[in-house]
Amino acid sequence: MSAPVAIHIENLSKTFGRFRKRIHAVKNLNLDIHAGQVYGFLGPNGAGKTTTICMLLDLVLPTQGDVYIYGKHVRREHDVLRRVGAIVEHAAFYNFLPARKNLEVLARTGNHYDPDRITALLAQVGLTDRARQRVKGYSTGMKQRLGLAAALLHDPDLLILDEPTNGLDPAGMHEIREFIRDLVDNHGKTVFLSSHLLGEVEQICDRVAIISLGQIVREGAVADLLAGKAQLRVEASPLDKAAAVLREHWTLSTGNSQWMMVNAPREDVPHVVRKLVEHDINVYEVSSQRQTLEQYFLSVVREEVSGD
Amino acid sequence: MINLFRAEWSKTTGHRWVTSCLLWIFPAGAVGFMIIIGLILALSSSAREEFAADTLLWTDQMTGVWGVPNSPFGRLLLLGFTAVMFAGEYQWHTWKNVIPRNRRAALILVKFVTLGALVVFAFALMSVIIGLGMGLLVKMAGGTYGPALTGEVLGDFASDYTRQAVLAFVSTIIAAGYAALAAMLTRSILGGVLVGVGLTFAESLLVGGLILIAFFLKIPNVLHLYRLTPGYNLLNVNEWIVNNHSLTIELPYGDNQSIILSDNLAFSLLLLAVWVVGLIGLTIVLFRRQDIASA
Questions:
Q1: Model pTM above 0.90
Q2: What is the DSSP string of A231-258?
Q3: What are the chain B neighbours of A92 within 8 Å (beta carbons)?
Q4: B20 touches chain A (CB under 8 A)
């Protein structure tokens, strides 16, 4: 039995500005995100990620369409947002207040003030020793950690995190990744996160959606998306002749004067070698390459931008 | 609501630089003023004699403090304070932490309540400092500081003090309403201050403008618009409470031609309520319709 749907997005659109300054930030977005997973939301700058996140949180009114969280319409049944914790764009705080005071203010504003929970969360994000220091003196990474603590203040079921590891050093990023994964695997949370750091997304997310120019262009389990883009690295001589032979059967992607990438699964390796040998081409290497999410993302975005 | 109020109080008073410069400056200024006068009295015997000769009343000293929020300097600082309270959240990007949207109405309401509470607290404190401090100074100079504390004096003082405080409070809330609305529209502290000052200034100039319109365009009835302004109604309420009759204002619009404005207490109270509720309501409606976070 599949997990319940945590987020259901239906024909969501947002247009900013009027007349000649009109910008279609998000166009007819449809998405279902099931509970109990880390869901990645990827896209280049200006693709519409933050606008979508703001509409999920009812911070921005959609021009058209609906958002449901745990089956409840976010605009008509606002209170469902009490089940959501979020960091939008970057964690923002009252810089003139200490970290602990900031969390107290946020907890009281949300009417879920619990001093013990604040203490525990500060410890969880590693800020206990700096809790009484004003946020003004915090690094970006420390603010991000505090942002995570703020998002978790009311123990939400769903976390919406926009670039949660922004400004963190590699060790901090690793720590936060583990933290997020733990929230999902051991505490039953659902995490919807947007990130530019594709290596991070690949490591942490179960599924991803790629948004480009306001539209979802790919969506699926990370493993499935990458498996569907299997490639072979072919090193042969003469390479241009090899390319001409292989192009008759497969599509080619990147390469240089020494080697090229052929879009073909591992099972095709013998056929590739056979074709090359039949045409009297010297083969030095044919190896199966696992595409990274970054390569996949870049190829998808390039395709979309060029309109292929 | 209590939690929301405590949150608002914490973050407002936590911004020490702003509250010190724009709010606590009033009681602190009163302390400074007392110290300066004290030094002058300590150093100059003629100043002591002059000071002792003045008949100072603690009732007047304490009540007079409530004129400060309506003075140009007081109004400017309080408009600045309001603008920081409302527009600061845009500049600090902290509005986006307010999820869900239905918390927004309560939050705006609490901002006005907190602003009102802080203003009342600051000026009440200032009036106590002035009242006690002046007594001390009069004693230093060897003068008398009346009136004597009797039941009747206390009763009169309480009603006079409350009246002045309430009128100052209402007037401040209306001016803060202008600044808050401007701050929400411009999403800028400076914009909030400038538009707030502009609107307050425009209100005080309105009567002159209306007289000119009535005179040059021969539309005398336009002068009745002055009856809708908060300033006129505050004066009228004050007149009713103090003298038990309406304020009578004669507005000329030509040679030997004028219109006399005079309204009952209920009219002015209703108008003031409409201004207060209207400005706060408009700020809430505007905020609830706003998209938060840049896109």
A1: no
A2: EEEEEEESHHHHHHHHHTTSEEEEE-SS
A3: 92-94, 96-97
A4: no
